[in-house]
Records
---
Amino acid sequence: MADIGALPLTLLSEQFARLPGIGMKSAQRLAYHVMEMSDAEANELAQAILNAKRKVHTCKVCCNFTENELCRFCDDARRDRRTVCVVEAPRDIAAFERTKEYKGVYHVLHGLISPINGVGPDALTIKQLLARVNSGDIDEVIMATNPTVEGEATAMYISKLLKPFGVKVTRLAFGLPIGGMLEYADEITLYKALENRSEI
Amino acid sequence: MADIGALPLTLLSEQFARLPGIGMKSAQRLAYHVMEMSDAEANELAQAILNAKRKVHTCKVCCNFTENELCRFCDDARRDRRTVCVVEAPRDIAAFERTKEYKGVYHVLHGLISPINGVGPDALTIKQLLARVNSGDIDEVIMATNPTVEGEATAMYISKLLKPFGVKVTRLAFGLPIGGMLEYADEITLYKALENRSEI
């Protein structure tokens, strides 16, 4: 990392550069920006980081982030607790909530099985999911991991573990994105769209 | 700002979204990333922010950022203190240092005159620059503000103030960037390149 004038500034830009999607140039720009903030603003930023780490933990039911015992979905009596949508990360929940159609609850894996990166099933919250299903109050588990190699493998792995419980296990549909153009669709997406075609 | 699960996380993403070049989506991603950091890593990031604000201040000669009384350029006996390069911000110094050609010292204005944004000459470090020149040890002041309306206006304003001191005041040359293509040059750059042509 290039020296940008004062050691504490260089160290700060190194910290920023470790964040995802922030390159060396942006990190330096952010470090200079912190110098332009008031003391109160810089304190707020630092405190927000510490507070998030200190106050936020995982929901004891679904492993989503929350500052309470239960996350706001598990704690909401209007949600259908018999339907569980299994996602890789808390950020994926926001995507489902934007549809305004999904009324079930969630289960956050906090990762995908990835032997290459040394992530085995035990590193995820699969045990907690099996315990939820084992409690017998669940009708359907929707595997909503991303359509990547690791997402597919994790969905398959978990669905096999769930089979003995007699619960219905489904997978998100894959096909053409709405508004997408046939000519720009990759061959696997198009193949999936063809394979999963439905009568009109 | 969208609720992203837990209040401290939402507040953190709002803090990140205030930083330059970070939109709402990136800010949420950064907030989730903080949750993946270890407590020690999150502490380091927060401390780096606080340390930069606490330890870094402006050089008493040139107003560049430093954690000491003098910045490393003003404190370096090998630099030519009779030549002063006037820049808008500390980040601009890095650009000059990358040329490895400039051996003089700097003066950081910490902004440009901008009546639209309510920034008058008194908000900059112009007084300190005049005091340096008045001390009589300076041969040349290079106005190195950006070639924007505000950069030009500030350079002109300061050069007028410097005239009575009998010091040589120069401005960076404008023309075609090296490696640039004529056909892509904007008309003002090309006009400047033509106007400032030199015999070969």
---
Amino acid sequence: MKSLIKEKGAPYYLQIKEILEERIFNNVYPVNSLMPSETTLAEEFDVTRTTIRNALKELKNVGLIYTEKGKGTIIKSPKIEQSLLNFYSFGREFKDSSHNIGSKVISKEKIVPTLDLIEKLQVDEKTSLFKIERLRLFNNIPMILETSYIPEDVAQGIIDEDLENKSIYDLLEWKYKVKIAKAQEYIEPKIANVIEAGLLEIPKISPVFYTERITLAAGNKPVELRMSIIRGDKFKFYTELY
Amino acid sequence: MKSLIKEKGAPYYLQIKEILEERIFNNVYPVNSLMPSETTLAEEFDVTRTTIRNALKELKNVGLIYTEKGKGTIIKSPKIEQSLLNFYSFGREFKDSSHNIGSKVISKEKIVPTLDLIEKLQVDEKTSLFKIERLRLFNNIPMILETSYIPEDVAQGIIDEDLENKSIYDLLEWKYKVKIAKAQEYIEPKIANVIEAGLLEIPKISPVFYTERITLAAGNKPVELRMSIIRGDKFKFYTELY
């Protein structure tokens, strides 16, 4: 849990924004409920109402709350809006934010590729693959269950890296000198199976995204296949069409 | 049901491709099952095996089948791959194809906007909206349940058009001289409710896409809000990330 640092911290309104954001994500303020009033919040944090108002403005901008005349401030769907307009990466996007981002390694092993993997990663049957299964956490809440397949010759030794705290894309680019060019992604709706629901801590019959992403290096060489189960109650995708 | 036209029809292999495609979409050939052999198909259509082979090649290219050594030709997931890289429209995309495309109007009415609609369509509370609910059909199979909201002043009288056979975007552009600039789209996974499942003819607990699309004319004026329930067993979205 975050709390306001009055000494040499970030501007109060930004700190308070993040504290409130955390409360929304953790369901302290449930969806559709009323936010405490500006006066109540000002008292709690011992700041002016203007500071609270600025914090609320920030939350409004990221789509977490809205105001209704005569009612007050209401908690909106706490979904992370994931833009499909550029190469997104959970680990990278939130890395520099003050959110507590991490991964739990569920399994990692070296495997012989199946026919499907041979086709998708364009490797021959003699190429070993690293299979890395991670649960991605945001403020300690499980958000995405991710299975990565990386050809051994692309990143020898990546399986022994600190995969709980490091982004695979960062490792590929900075340590293994793989220049990532683009990714092709397929998105499907699905109902989480019992294992997925258990790991993601969601009710048994929950809608999730299933995505399959092939990441290509220069020359269109596939360097990773990633299958993700993404919580539907926490994420929505956004795109612009022309 | 299509059948082969031997007189002045399209090339045999293309006609056969479409007949087989229809069978896959209609579950005559279920997913993961084996396709009849080339010889069997050649006999059925009374053409050469080369013609059959060319038809199968086409089906392979659109991702409906694949070949496994020693087994034969297998039916893949019959999902329509919907690219998010450009402004897609079910009615427009398949209009010129030989597929049987149509809509069933479920309801249409003039309504007073709710607060949510006022905000999303940027209208005032005095602007009436047309609400048009359509079931989109592909070869007579229900694929998408779509609810459109259009401000009356954008397209006076659109509610009386032939909405079973015409694309709303085409009507807006050609008849009502609305220049569509872009659309903003949100995509979420969801479990179809009983009404949606009934109309879409899918089992009760089925995963579907829920999309919300705001279409903007020049000057960023919202001209339509469209909420769609898209069958998850028939569609997947595709995008490229850079």
---
Amino acid sequence: MTTEQPPQSKTHRVVIVGAGFGGLECAHRLAGAPVSITLVDRRNHHLFQPLLYQVATASLATSEIAWPIRYLMRDRREVTTLFANVNGVNAQSKRVLLDDGDTLPYDTLILATGARHAYFGHDEWEPFAPGLKTLEDATTLRRRILVAFERAERETDPERREALLTFVIIGAGPTGVELAGTIADLAKDTLAPDFRNIDTRKARVVLIEAGPRVLAGFPDDLSAYAQASLESLGVEVRVGQPVTECSADGVVYGDNKLEARTIIWAAGVRASRAAEWLNAPADRAHRLEVLPDLTVPGHPDIFAIGDTVTIAGPDGRPVPGIAPAAKQQGRYAAATIKARLNGGTLPPFRYKHAGSLAQIGKRLAVIDFGRIKLRGTIAWWIWGIAHIYFLIGLRNRLSVALSWLWIHARDQRAARLITQGSSKVVR
Amino acid sequence: MTTEQPPQSKTHRVVIVGAGFGGLECAHRLAGAPVSITLVDRRNHHLFQPLLYQVATASLATSEIAWPIRYLMRDRREVTTLFANVNGVNAQSKRVLLDDGDTLPYDTLILATGARHAYFGHDEWEPFAPGLKTLEDATTLRRRILVAFERAERETDPERREALLTFVIIGAGPTGVELAGTIADLAKDTLAPDFRNIDTRKARVVLIEAGPRVLAGFPDDLSAYAQASLESLGVEVRVGQPVTECSADGVVYGDNKLEARTIIWAAGVRASRAAEWLNAPADRAHRLEVLPDLTVPGHPDIFAIGDTVTIAGPDGRPVPGIAPAAKQQGRYAAATIKARLNGGTLPPFRYKHAGSLAQIGKRLAVIDFGRIKLRGTIAWWIWGIAHIYFLIGLRNRLSVALSWLWIHARDQRAARLITQGSSKVVR
């Protein structure tokens, strides 16, 4: 049976750069539309970033929060998945440029290229204070944290031992808070029975924040609760203290110098190079300033979504860089493309804030649903169920549930592995 | 309550180098003996090597087959676990030398230092034909295999595309057979629906063996069955064909040149440097030639066990380099130490061969129990149950069972991740 097909050249070509939450949602929402889609990513996997800190703290395995992009698109014959590195856009000729010289022609382009951690003029801090954005970042942090305990176990000098057992997290947004709470749990519960020469429960976890409070995006009372909860886990919280120096020895903040062998950067991100590719207006963090329909000024055929853009929400504050915001934008871009193909338009993008969640250690969380605020164990249950719900596929849901069950019931963490790219041992 | 303790200096000190199957079993079997134990490994984890090929082929996650050594010894107060690199033994002063200058005094030393893959005078082949002994080896192979498919998807030149879709495994022992079968399954079932420009089912998997048959350690009829089964999976089996060249282009074997971008070495191992440390007699593969009580000639206080030794079994043939053999030797060494502490001795070590197993693709296996030989699906079930039984802990058993269920029911593999040490994309 053959049916009349429209000639290939007339199919509207959509290129989506980046298969994070925004790009993937856009691809999903274009199902059934008369378009051909090319989904490009320099990784072969979609990453569930909200749980990346759990890989860094040995709680989850890498494969529990990552899915091959190709696999997610396997039933969509009109979607071509490319494992490739984009390094530019030619908006005149309407082509995406790949670093191997290939180009991808588009009729509509979606830039969903995300963000990396940023050091705001202090890139020299990166080797001492690595950040957390990719699976490799997470396994690197995991290695550093676990190796610090191993080296402390063999260290005889008390000062060096204390520096090895001091963990500094810079930045007290959700990632910083979640890292600090989980490292405290790791030291207190998971590792304590396993060491002989050190008492891992005496490890110091120090959370340093330049602003006046932790979880600045949450209401004051939830911030205060989060800080008190962290302190009850043994985390030392230092707010209003900008870090002025990171080195192999430790950090300097305010008038304090803290010797620490492990420093983690959770203090800020900068957007991808998308604004440079288009020579388009961007804010200080390189986020593209998009129009109310999420297109780039002067380029109605280029949408930019997710962490790589800045746009005001209905309350006038910037839309936060979180997964639900990126997904809403991906959905809006897909709907706009469909409307345009039918000769229509859509009202401007309007962000709906569903809520903010952060886990504090293994049994507590805070949730801000706007009118409803939750905290404590009940919030943790909602946090846990929500995260399992948003994972993709039954297998990973079962697997993560299993991993969490073991953490809660046995204090065992699934992935206490020191690994690296080479076969050499890191010391 | 205080009880009289024997003075610390009189406790018999056992140092175990290597926490593989042999070293770990020895530590377990010394429980309750009046000894203090130091267990040294340059990894922080014990690895279940029999399933390592499943990590290399994206079927299992790294953490499903690895456990922190420290965690396995957590309830044994007399055991100190050290994450350190041994680089020598001073048998005169009875000390193990670490690469950071520290030394570990021993009364009895257990060398359970294992083996690495070996190229028999062709070390220059290693970059082109990596082997499989560590978790990093496995994630490196996984990356190479998955990247080959990704690059083939984008390759327009037919010859280069064919070379990218040709996978050569050198050596048809259990590891080679298991890799070949699993890569064939991966190409045929798991990946086929996900690619658009290539038909992954046309990937060539070529298993090359210098000897006259696959699975040389098994009886003739099971070898023949294994070869026929591999061929029915589409694997091209070439026996009696020594490889004479490995390069970035491919392999040369006999009079044949085969263009291939992915070559895997499963053709042989050499022992650790333990024989060099002691300047003790060893065979061609550097395996220590131990006495019938598993001690090193001239060193009654040094046992050597597992893949790093060679010793004849009751049938006169060498004891095979498999997990049950290493465990039996670890058990024997522990029993001998206990007997000696009581002033006794033990009869010489006697290897009991329980059986040989190998999986062929995802639904078949061969098992040689001596009098009973099994093959096909029933053998696969026994293979699967035995492997899950020998995993450590309920959590990993459930997790591996879940992963295998998904492979069988859905052809989904848990860990199709391209990752590496650096954050750069490999092409």
---
Amino acid sequence: MRRICVIVTARPSYARVKTALEAMRDHPAIDLQIVVAASALLDRYGRVVDVIRKDGFEVAAEVYSVLEGGAVAQSVRSVGIGLIELASVLSRLEPDAVVTIADRYETIANAIAASFMNLPLVHIQGGEFTGSIDNKVRHAITKLADVHLVASELARHRVVSMGEDPRYVINTGCPSVDLAAEVARDPGLDFDPFERYTGTGPSFDLSGGYVVVLQHPVTTEHDDAFEQARISLDAVRALGKPVFWFWPNVDAGSDGTSKALRMFREREGDRPFHFFKNMLPQDFLRLIVNSDCLIGNSSVGIRESAFLGVPVVNIGTRQNGRERGPNVADVAHDVDAIRAAATRQIAHGRYPASHIYGDGRAGVRIAEELARVELTIEKRDFLVPAGAALGLVEREGL
Amino acid sequence: MRRICVIVTARPSYARVKTALEAMRDHPAIDLQIVVAASALLDRYGRVVDVIRKDGFEVAAEVYSVLEGGAVAQSVRSVGIGLIELASVLSRLEPDAVVTIADRYETIANAIAASFMNLPLVHIQGGEFTGSIDNKVRHAITKLADVHLVASELARHRVVSMGEDPRYVINTGCPSVDLAAEVARDPGLDFDPFERYTGTGPSFDLSGGYVVVLQHPVTTEHDDAFEQARISLDAVRALGKPVFWFWPNVDAGSDGTSKALRMFREREGDRPFHFFKNMLPQDFLRLIVNSDCLIGNSSVGIRESAFLGVPVVNIGTRQNGRERGPNVADVAHDVDAIRAAATRQIAHGRYPASHIYGDGRAGVRIAEELARVELTIEKRDFLVPAGAALGLVEREGL
Amino acid sequence: MRRICVIVTARPSYARVKTALEAMRDHPAIDLQIVVAASALLDRYGRVVDVIRKDGFEVAAEVYSVLEGGAVAQSVRSVGIGLIELASVLSRLEPDAVVTIADRYETIANAIAASFMNLPLVHIQGGEFTGSIDNKVRHAITKLADVHLVASELARHRVVSMGEDPRYVINTGCPSVDLAAEVARDPGLDFDPFERYTGTGPSFDLSGGYVVVLQHPVTTEHDDAFEQARISLDAVRALGKPVFWFWPNVDAGSDGTSKALRMFREREGDRPFHFFKNMLPQDFLRLIVNSDCLIGNSSVGIRESAFLGVPVVNIGTRQNGRERGPNVADVAHDVDAIRAAATRQIAHGRYPASHIYGDGRAGVRIAEELARVELTIEKRDFLVPAGAALGLVEREGL
Amino acid sequence: MRRICVIVTARPSYARVKTALEAMRDHPAIDLQIVVAASALLDRYGRVVDVIRKDGFEVAAEVYSVLEGGAVAQSVRSVGIGLIELASVLSRLEPDAVVTIADRYETIANAIAASFMNLPLVHIQGGEFTGSIDNKVRHAITKLADVHLVASELARHRVVSMGEDPRYVINTGCPSVDLAAEVARDPGLDFDPFERYTGTGPSFDLSGGYVVVLQHPVTTEHDDAFEQARISLDAVRALGKPVFWFWPNVDAGSDGTSKALRMFREREGDRPFHFFKNMLPQDFLRLIVNSDCLIGNSSVGIRESAFLGVPVVNIGTRQNGRERGPNVADVAHDVDAIRAAATRQIAHGRYPASHIYGDGRAGVRIAEELARVELTIEKRDFLVPAGAALGLVEREGL
């Protein structure tokens, strides 16, 4: 029986691994310990911890660590607080391995806590590429991690390129696609979004189509967050379609994005823009698979939408370097460009499914790997090519 | 005028960059800000901060972060506290770049604080290889860093292999060798160690030769620290030579090492073993260049001693994967093996100088690079080989 | 020249000591160091730090410490972070005395940091009484403080009763009344609130009168915060007057209060309720002196309003135990009671001025005391009555 | 069944409440949760946590919080870290009341964590008086606490004088005296100190008598700690008796005291001075009841020694303001005065027992009170005398 501790720090991370958590909970050789941390505990971001409990998971510990204020120094302090708390939590839970997901800034705390405490670290979704600090965080976690469960062949190639031992870099596909596969089997919009999620702004009729927007601030461009949100608001307004708009993750810059949304609401509160904080992942996927177009910079546009064939307008640099299916149109932060691309995508309609991010069984594969893989903290280093003429004598451990 | 903030966290880090700090202080285009943190502030480790001030440097901030106790969870909490403090320090100092040195666990805080605050991060001595958690820390810092000033060609090769932009990976040589070069020009033992440093244990006559021991706990083997220190004590005692022994760095396991030393002192306090906490770097180099043999696992045995030609017995895994000159004999933690190797090295005497870690001008080169190199936080990623048939369209920023 | 460090942690604290800060800044024997901390730095609470700078004060340090989430455990963690930061700030500023104001939870960090670092601690506004945790905090700070500058004779009596040396308990009056005195000399509403402060909600005509509401959550009743805010909203709506409503301080429970206000806004956004985050203190006093009634549980209703003669409806337990002028009507959290009391107060109109909280020169007196009073950390303890037959021999220091 | 959480932060605190902990563990209506924190976890101070476990108690949580270095700023940071950790620990344990003991600096964290989290706070040993920062800490905790279990009638009088509700101030006697009463029933020295505790320094024959020294640094005089320890060493050496000397608690100044002891040991290591870190409380009491004199500034000299009749030389201000039995001679930090007083006390021999600190049943009384007393966080405030002509209308809660 292996104690596997999975640390969930944000709404999208949970969505991304939910099927893996279910498979772990049900696996006879795994004792699952879920730690919920950071923005996953906050009202402002929909308290995903409540969703997790409602989904039938037990929460082994909560780690509050988010300091108020959008300034970048706060992300540093929040990681610091997360470390202090995780030291106690991991000392108490004594897991056999710690799992951290993706690349949000606060996840570096998970990786440091585990590796410094000599606990084998498993990283889900390494080897991706994005256009912000997430990139540095993700690759740094790769170098701290002992096992890598990646989401695509390109990701595997990239992790191995960084000198990781190929035996510990395993392409499981992305568990977020598992949910998409489930939704795709019966894709009707089987709920009323206004009723189930309230939100703010006017209700509207969905029968004439609608678009969905999900745009996060980009950490290295956080001073532009307000302006970038304003541009997207202008472009989307010009489409003349009803809109479901989602608030951003907590992050350096999220105050800027939120401010733009609030200003819009106050000035143009009668337009058919409805704002949600949060939605159950399956409901969100149903919402976008029935939409005319998904607009913004969320990874959902790249991954789940590839499988679902949803037309996507991907804005700016946040998803740079990720493999795309044919369903994605990339544009810059420009009112006209966004509007034109969205118009074309709406006209095109749904695309055929792409399996570049998995076939819908990633969750089960992740649980199996976690039950099977050798758990060690002694990593071999593959940086120096075998036989390189560098005057280096072979030694144990190298 | 660039504000360059260098964070010094430990005695050996300072020794390693002292000539670079002098060159920065004297450089007309650099405004040097020295932050002293972690064990560099503690009595137990010789308060290097006092040495730094005595050497004529101004200290811009002190960051106390070391929690008491040798358990691994404490290193996690100490990084947490370091982050909270550094967020404030860097907000106040507003540097144009932050420099972190080498790979001790607490330096990950420097790297996170700088990169999360969108400050260009310069890493000195990336691309090395050692046999412990330092390895993970060092490579993780490489992935967070924007500029890499490495100490050897092998190190440069390794950093580039991890996907770093070759234009920002510069082999300056190791500044620790600068001091060695200076000492080598006039290598006499021009001071009385007992008088200048007091220490504890009996004094003895140096004219018949002596050995020097410097052995640190290995983080991933911290439970063995006590036993490893005991083995070395037994082996060195058997040589029948007077001994200068240095206390270890603060680290997971240092309590074990220190305990073994204290027990030895209490039981065999009349033997010619003299214990020092600390020594000025130039004095330490003079001490070893005049010794019969340097024993332990310090990087000084690998780097400075290569230039100086000091016979070295390197014990255990801590220096695994580092290039060696001909002066190094590697042995395991074994009383007989250590004793035999030391006997051979004492018989051999000094070796010719090797330049694998630099020619003695690294400090000046580092200052020049810091004044010259483009400072940016937008790193290009070289992980995907150009032209790779991976179905990935070239995009800006990739 | 004495370095006096004043730590401001919240909007109302600044309002309360502004004239004292001005008098310190202008005093030839005082070198004023202002540290801004906690909610005084947050957008959500109007970033008072910006007001402080705009008022011409230099800010010596900023201390971010508020963790997100309304749960009581967060206030504990926030004090913890405040302490870690203040240790560094006070080490750097090296003040001759530290001044902390009133009784908000986070101010205990100021008191601990100063007293543990052997810095004389001055407490402004000890000896008050309120109905929540503030009471415990305030009296605990009294026992940590060396000098007490209190706001009324009753307050002085209470501090001395706790065993403090009467020579160090000085009634200066409350500096918040200084501003009230200034406003009272020329009480016209000389600005347009909608224009100067924007806020949210409809604009309205002021000529027919209006009421002002300022209601904070009560820490020991934080689960009731939502319901208490809802009751006040119902009662005030029933008055049929236009309303200026202010958002609450950050505190355990503030999420509940804020939620009630947001729900009201969304459902009844067309009523003449205008919401402000914050206002310059003098503007706020002008606003209330021209209002028909001030409703809620703010200390402004007790202090400044006593001098100004504003009719006040004070709701609930938050101001329990504070002296009142004749202008205050106390009511419970009850829709009818609030409505009835407000109707009577509106009918009554302004009251004559009361000087129970000072005559308008408290700021100058505080500065003079800080320049004059002996600064020592060796407190005499007056708990054992002189001559008490307790078998205790008189000893030095007792 | 009440969950009572007792937080133990140091060796002497545990000694002081051990019989109370036993009585709580055995009480049918109490579910005891022991949290061990701060120096009670450190090797340097004898890891009392191991003793606690060996005594058969379960430890519900460990809170590491001590930062390295003797500077006063570290005590502030350590309280900060303690708060962050305690917030999580108390959230998890959900006690019905929290018990904190005495007045060491780090215990303010216990009091803040409990009171801010709306948990009833019980303070053991309020109302004492000492000559340092402990005084401020203790009285501040009194004002945060809801229930006070004090050790003497004078202490009760003092707590009530500070405005606490007399119904919640209960004189249970001091549980440290329970152990003394047990030892007094059969006071022979039934173990060999050298054999059981090792320690450092020469062994000696006990049959000719010996003295015991226990001297802590005084926080407000921490710069004098080194000199004060040196004076005591000189005075005790002059007595010509063998000496058992105990290392001090971790505290601001303990580095100074420790340095003086280490210097003495290195220079005069052959004298009959034997140094111990720590001893089981009952063994320590046996050691002193069989000694010729107890010298220093420990509270053991005041309390347990009163019951046991041990002749005591109490040095300096640390125990100022505590009631004394006839067995105590007070002296200043002066070599001659200490020597002279010790000579007189040695000549006098044992004193008759005094019950000022209890009759030996305090532990049982404390457990009974904790099972019985009303647990509330709504404290009545007795600062304003009933019927005082202060124009204050009686209100609920006042």
